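Quick start: what a row looks like.
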Amino acid sequence: MTKLHNRSLDRGISILQALARVESSSLAELFRSTGLPKSTLRRLLATLQDRGLVRKSILDQRYRCNIMLPTSSDNHITQHVDFLKVALPLACKLTEEIKWPSDIHVKDGFAMKIIDSTRPLSPFQMYQMDVDFKVNIFGSATGMALLASLPEHETRKIHAETINDPVWGLHRFGLNFDEYLQELKRTNKRGYGQRLITYSGERVGDDKQNAISHIVQKNGVSVGVLALLWPREYMNYDEFIEKYLKRFSATAKEISKNLV
């Protein structure tokens, strides 16, 4: 019996398998791991991206597999693909309109994790971040927006688990839990998250940035957070919010609306 063989399909599966074995890959790394010509890789990757099986992050221009394969490592498979598929194009549109960049974050254990960003699309100089970079959930704008949307007992649990941690815990900011709950109440009243005054990022020294954030929900459940960033010296919170909050809020609401 003649064995049927589709060369393009076989090559496409080879690319998926190569991506599933690693966290991410550049075109050059895929060339080395698959042995396929770069012109073939570009063509097949474009098709896989169009079909939603592969994504190319804006932040680092690396390729990632969107689906679970037998060769996949669990920690490299994200449950946030559908969220990112909706959020990223709208975040890009926002940056195109107002120029300031947006980060897309999800909760990862006791921290917030960036899964992509429009920073490379912004004309303004900002700290360039990495995909999967983590920030403190208590001090960051995205973390505050998320915690403000959660029941108090969930926030209390995170606090209890990180109470002695100098990097991820609340005491890093000189607040006790009751004082922090008041900060979350103010966050809810404002309708958006912003950094604690004592939070200056996770880099060495001060990153000199400000941020506001909105949770994104699917069927009433928070699935991620969208942040809008700018240099602190450029504009204070009141000026920035007056100028950009309405458009930013509309984007976050549109993402939630499209998550069905």
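That is the whole record. The longest strand covers residues 221-231. Strands lie at 54-56, 63-65, 102-108, 111-117, 134-136, 193-194, 209-218, 221-231.
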